[in-house]
């Protein structure tokens, strides 16, 4: 397996607020809503609307964003490839959590039903 430590460090220091607008643009271009995006983020992290807004305004890193999250117990059901990596095989916990979020946003943008995205 190749060394991804530099990649992992870069992800940890990325600011959530700078990536969030890209999530919104991606899903809205495909006819989904910001409310649906927030539902997906809340399912994954436990963050409600006001906490999410606070984190965005505070310009936190992904490291901080996920350090305060209460991950859904069903995250292990998120499987598949995102950004060239199989999410269930990523060994760095934070990188895996960020890729879980990327995968869920991708599924939302692809028109997958919400019940499937949030693994009901």
UniProtKB/TrEMBL annotation:
For this protein, the record's InterPro entries field holds: SP1917_dom_sf, UCP033199
Q: What is this protein called?
A: DUF2200 domain-containing protein
